Amino acid sequence: MKGRVRLEWIYLLVLALFLWVGNGYGAESAKLTNADCIKCHKKEVSQINAHGGKHKLVGCLGCHKGHYPMIPFSKMIPKCSECHHGKPHFKLSHCERCHSNPHEPLVMNLAKGYFKKECMTCHKKEGEELAKYPTKHSKLACNTCHVQHGYIPPCLRCHKPHLAGQTNKDCKLCHAAHRPVPVTYGMNIPNAYCTACHSKIGKMLASTHTKHRKLKCVFCHRGRHKIIPSCEACHGEPHPMVMVKGKKCLDCHMDAHALIK
């Protein structure tokens, strides 16, 4: 009896295999479509639809030329270089260090390791700024700040504000992250931001009774930190040459922030 049951099972298995092959699933003519992939790979299809970037335009079978047993396992996952070539970034090895999931190629967790050379192959401008204007930022790995691709950390995570109440938005009015020095700014910077560091000068300016007291610091020190304008830029030549006798303005007026008439 047991032998008969065993033979019936073998018969059923053979019949199932025959039907499977007969229906074309094992034949060379079998054709998969992108619509077939979601039947088993719902997670991957969901990922690529949400964060696939340009990979989304390729379609599953644009990368995966087939499925086992129609093709070997070794050929199911293509090499990145099959599509990505012709740019310095694509010459880098070990793509998976950053692009750990090809279905979400730009969702990159960079919290571990040291990344700099890799980043510069795409972010050339930022790299040039860090090199041209060397600061402590220049010595850091890119992922010291950018722990994920596209993540911009708040300045105040590492830096103390010059003035209580300043926000990250205020920091960016004067400092660019990849070239924090030189300091550049517009005409909308309040004096309090300057006098937070230049307190002595701020007190002098507040104590003067001349028109300079009413001016913003950036009215004279325009555009870039440490710019010192000439008095003649605003005042021209107010005194006859015979009176000045080759002296400079501040030889008599002492200090632009606390003028002596």
Structure description:
- The protein has 261 residues and is an all-alpha fold.
- Among the domains are: 44-82 and 96-107, no CATH class; 108-162, no CATH class; 191-253, no CATH class.
- 36% of the residues lie in helices and 0% in strands.
- It is built from 15 helices and no strands.
- The termini are far apart.
- Mean pLDDT is 87; it is low at 14-19 and 22-29.
Give me the secondary-structure topology:
Blueprint: H1 2-22, H2 34-37, H3 42-51, H4 55-58, H5 60-63, H6 117-120, H7 124-132, H8 142-145, H9 168-171, H10 191-195, H11 199-207, H12 217-220, H13 232-235, H14 241-244, H15 249-253
Which features does this protein show?
261 residues, mainly alpha, 15 helices, elongated
Beta-strand portion reads under 5%
What value does the Rg take, in angstroms? Answer: 34 Å
Assembly category: single chain
| Number of H- or I-type helical stretches | 15
Average pLDDT level = 87
Low-confidence stretches: 14-19, 22-29
Q: What is the number of strand segments?
A: 0
* Structural class estimated from helices and strands: mainly alpha
Helix content range: 25-40%
Main sheet, how many strands, which sense, barrel?
none
Query: What's the helix-strand series?
Result: HHHHHHHHHHHHHHH
